[in-house]
Amino acid sequence: MIAALLLLIPFLAATLLVVLRPTKHARSVALISSLATLAVVLMAWATYAGSPVVLADRDWVPAWGLRFVMGYDGVGLLMLILTAVVFPFIIGTGYGEKLQHPSLVNALLLYTQTFLLGVFMAQNALLFYIFYELTLIPVFFLLLYWGGERRRAITIRFFIYTLLGGLSLLFGIIYCMAQGPTMNGDFSALAALNLPIGVQHWLFWVLFLAFAIKLPIFPFHSWQPDTYTMAPMQGTMVLAAVMLKMGLYGVIKLVFPIVPDGVAFWRETVIALSLIGAVYGGIIAFRQWDLKRLIAYSSLSHVGLICAGLFAWNSYGITGSLYQAFAHSILVLCTLYLCSALKERVGSSEMGAMGGLKVRTPRLAALFLLVLLNAVALPLTQSFIGEWLMFLGLWQVHSWLAVVAVSTIVWGTIYMLYAYQRVMLGPDKWQLEMPDASNRDHLFLVPLIAITLILGVYPAPILDLVDPSVQLLLSSLP
Amino acid sequence: MVMTDLLAVLVPALPLAGAVLLSALRRKFSATVAGSIATALIAISFVATVILFSGFDTAAGGRTVRVLDWLSITGMDIPLALRIDALSLTMMLIVTGVGALIHLYSIGYMHDDERAPTFFAQLNLFSFAMLMLVMGSNFLVTFIGWEGVGLCSYLLIGFWYTKPDYNYAARKAFVMNRIGDVGMVLAMALLFHFLGTLEYTAVMENAHSIPAWGLLAITLLLFFGATGKSAQIPLFTWLPDAMAGPTPVSALIHAATMVTAGVFLVVRSSVLFDLVPYTRDVILWTGTATALLAATIGLFQNDIKKVLAYSTVSQLGYMFAALGMGAYSAAMFHVTTHAFFKALLFLAAGSVIHALGGEQDIRKMGGLKGSIKITFVTFFIGTIAISGLPLMSGFFSKDLILAHAFQHSPVAFGLLVFGAVLTTFYMFRLLFLVFYGTYRGKAHAHESPLTMTVPLMVLAVLSVVGGALNLPHLFGGHEPMKHFLESAAAAIRSEEIELSASTEWILMGITAVLVFTTIAFAYGRFVKRTTLEGDEADMPLLKRLIAQRWRVDELYAALFEKPYGWLSEHFHSIGELRIMVPLQNGVGEAALRVGNVVRKLQTGNASFHLLAMVAGIIIFLVITLLSN
Predict the structure, then answer these.
(1) When you count CB atoms within 10 A of the terminal residue's CB, does the N or C end of chain A come out lower?
(2) In order along chain B (628 residues), what is the average pLDDT of each group of 10 residues?
(3) Which chain A residues are Cβ-neighbours of B611 within 8 angstroms?
């Protein structure tokens, strides 16, 4: 029931938009659909009792022994919640962006949501893969038709790059399924594979490559800054707030259980690469003058830390990483929205064209500041909980890794404070007439900021959701 | 019991409520109303603290109030909890007491500022954060306050945000604090790694089970965190720049409370520091070096607030020197008296600045003792208190540190006495140049309103009699503050002066003679004739170097700021544009032919593609359903 609702609501709403093209009400239709999805997910959360839930389990392609299995555990539910929470805001951003053909834009967004929800419910590797790749299609068109400068070249580069990763993943999955006649590709069956160590060493990269590109971690990130900068605001939001979380989810569901020895062998390498990215991205962000590009590099930095925490491969690291994944989605929505709101007023996302805006827009400046607190992970914000847990997790792996990870609180502070100052502080040098934060701005930012503060003070709802699943995952590892 | 718990929660909750209320309704309130609300709330917190204090039984040791579960997952339980014991009560009294006076003062000082309600909201928020810092029952709750005060400091330094210099100062303060925070976070991670808890009581009980290298690392990292917050070498350069903030902020945050957080942290963790003599030596010499370095810089500064700022850095150095000698209660005593007289000096300086319409250059002052009498008298009291004239509060607290130094290390003693002489000199130079001689400016000086002068008078009284809080045996007292603090930090019990009474009298005599000689010298130099510092370019080399603050700022700029910018640019221009992008294009080059094929499939019509996609999905679903 829940599975059907979650897949059908956005899918039907999207199809409705494509067929009827209600230009005027397109955003409202999409918004209602996304709110309905949110309601269903929240209901699922309310009834979740702590043990994995199976939503559907039936034969799919009997000839190959494939089955259509859907369900979720705490981790999956967290991702569903994240997806459901994020989309109303992404669609809401559309009220300010005013793109051509709003019905098509919103349809594409809803298709993306459908497939994302599918990814997070799939309990079969092939099913997972299909949804995983399907998400790429609507996003591809979103970028290609509504992107900014050089959109063709950048979109195709992005598409090829992620597709290459995807092919590698497909090969890995088929390889696993070829391991025995009874292998149907269910996650539970894959976890019991027990592949030889030698195989696990190379298979790790075959499976992980797709996720490394999707996240992305250093040095697989070069598609990301251009794509984030060029994409329409809502596209960037989809990419940064949800799509990259598929990478984390994939690591937990496919990489950890199938190739645990491979993980044990490679994890320090992956952590090192991730942390290099975290520091590298944080340092680069400091001298970026385009707000969107700055957000892209800051995202590289944050995601590097999240991936490092995940590969700490212990209770604190994984829990912290998942917590931070949620925090990062909220954060990136806020920063991108701010960027959009500023662009609306100034006409550009170049910080060189801003400065001293606080004089004109004190409310917007206050909202920016509240977002900044979460960005630099001050205690009592959501990010602090995640970062603190990840630092502990990394400390258990190696103290020097933790030192590098903790250093990011300095790099992050530097570029965020510079950005805030370059945009908001200083004399009112442009003397532009501009409106202060509107009702829409408040409607968008205040709930998100409230989430970051509430979950910073009282993180139990998410921690209690994730903790048992993480313990289960760790206990099943050798 | 329930009553005391409620009071304990109330103490930080009231200023937090004030911060939320005032920032939400900042457009509705006038400066006076907002200021009154903020002052009233912190005053009630003070009253609550006094009630807690008077009902506190040192024999019971302390009490933990668990407010909320915070971080609890398998293997970890870190609650939001408050600790009421002698140490937190001492700090709470300072924060709310001195804080309330400074809030009151601000009503007058910020009267004409149109953003005054925002100012009071942030001042209240600061009080909340500072109270969390001192009341936390575990390191992580303290860290909430630790970061919170850093944030408020950032906001208040940059309060007048249209001035780029101020913004720079604010940012510098925050970043330097964050650098120190790296040490704090790592120390907490280590402690949790070894003990599985961050509760102060549990950590101190099990401290001996931590291996030696761990203790060394933890204490050094904690101290590194303390240098950031308390402006010690190497992270001291932000504090003088922080004077960009409104003067009450300088008094509250950058003199009386926030900057003493590092001292508090070391006393809170004194059990750990007692186990590692090496770290204590590091603290002793860092503190002594900071005390001297900052005191020398204070000699030639011309900005009234900058002189006081370097003086603060220097006095904090004394506190850390005391900590390094294991004299924890002596350090806390100096924290307390320093809160009185330095808050007084800053507020009085603010009153001078207020009277002169914003003038801060002492070369353009002089002869003000006739026109602003209350300000003059109170500033005078502050000056003799910090210089340690006999029977003033600063006399007792500084002499206690000097006595410890004498029995601990003669070299440190000598250096700290020299520092005391420098302190007297730069303070009396300030006093004489501002209030004596003839007026060298153009403004018409007028005395400040009562809301400003009443706090001055109260603080002046405290600066005089504050020594009674810890009156030594030599003067017929029995060191009440030391005995009070013993119940919170066991390490204080072993902190004894083992000098004979005659030795102590001689030590006091020496410093007193030196202080009076210095005053006479300063009198000759600045009152009999007025010696003003001229252009830096004409100074002899060493003096110029000191006047330019030993060029530490320039050194840091060359060592860190510029290379960081260079790194940021070149990571991008070389790392990204020359290496990463070409690399990726190389990978993509092979795939490009495939890409060309993909391109030919595109008709350029969005709806066609959508249709194709929908068709694909429907086929997919049909297969799924049919296969059942």
Answers:
(1) C
(2) 86 96 92 95 97 90 91 92 95 96 95 93 97 96 96 95 94 95 95 95 94 96 96 93 93 93 96 94 96 94 94 96 95 96 96 91 90 94 94 93 93 95 96 92 88 95 93 87 89 84 90 94 89 79 87 90 90 87 74 63 64 73 63
(3) 18
- B174 with A388: Cβ contact below 8 A: no
Mutation target for B interface from A59, A209, A286, A361: give the one with most B CBs within 10 A: A286
Contact assessment for residue B28 and residue B56, using Cβ atoms and an 8 Å cutoff: no
Rama region for B495: left / alpha / beta (φ>0; ψ in -120 to 50; rest): beta
CB contact at 8 A, B379 and B447: no
User: Cβ contact (<8 Å) for B175 and A417?
Assistant: yes
Q: Phi and psi (nearest 5°) for A60? A: -120, -65
- 8 A C-beta contact, residue B421 and residue B511: no
How far lies B32's CA from each of A80, B46, B113, in Å?
50, 21, 11
Burial class (CB in 10 A: 0-12, 13-18, 19+), A117: buried
Task: Name the residue among B3, B13, B83 with its Cα closest to residue B44.
Answer: B13
The pLDDT score that the predictor gives to residue B583 is 79
- In chain B, what residues touch A104 (CB-CB under 8 Å)? 606-607, 610
Residue B293 C-alpha, separation from nearest chain A C-alpha, in angstroms: 27
Residue of chain B minimizing CA distance to A225: B576
Q: Of B70, B174, B581, which is closest to A222 when you measure between CB atoms?
A: B581
Which residues in chain B touch residue A417, judged by CB atoms under 8 angstroms apart? 154, 171, 174-175
CB contacts, 8 Å: B154 with chain A:
417
Distances (CA, A) of A59 to A70, A138, A188: 12, 28, 16
How far apart (Å, rounded) are the C-alpha atoms in residues B181 and B187?
10
Flag whether residue A104 sits within 8 Å of chain B, measured between CB atoms: yes
- Please tell me whether the peptide bond between A219 and the residue prior to it is cis, using omega within 30 degrees of 0: yes
Considering only CB atoms, B185 lies closest to which of A18, A108, A391, namely A391
Q: CB-CB: which of A141, A225, A380 is closest to B609?
A: A141
Q: Retrieve residue B622's tokens.
A: 């049909």
CA distance B559 to chain A (A): 16
The Cα of A16 is separated from the nearest Cα of chain B by a number of Å equal to 11
Interface check A402 vs B, CB under 8 A? yes
The reply to whether residue B75 touches residue A315, judged by beta carbons under 8 angstroms, is yes
d(CA A319, CA A383): 13
- The residue among A284, A285, A306, A280 whose CA lies nearest residue A295 is A285
Q: Is the pLDDT of residue A137 over 60?
A: yes
A204 CB burial (10 A radius; 0-12, 13-18, 19+)? buried
Q: Where are the alpha helices (DSSP H) in B466-580?
A: 480-486, 501-523, 541-547, 552-556, 562-570
User: Taking the alpha carbons of A410, A412, A416, A418 in that order, is the dihedral positive or negative?
Assistant: positive
What are B255-264's pLDDT values in tens digits?
999 999 999 9
Taking contacts as CB-CB distances below 8 angstroms, the residues of chain B near A108 are 610
ipTM: 0.94
Alpha carbons within 13 angstroms on the beta-carbon side of residue B73 total 28
User: What is the Cα–Cα distance from B144 to A414, expressed in whole angstroms?
Assistant: 20
Question: Quick check: helix, strand or coil at residue A289?
Answer: coil
Tokens representing A238 are 């989809």
Helix (H, G, I), strand (E, B) or coil at A207: helix
| Contact criterion met (CB < 8 Å) for A410 and B182 | yes
| Alpha helices by DSSP H, B66-138 | 86-109, 116-135
Q: Note whether A417 contacts B569, CB cutoff 8 Å.
A: no
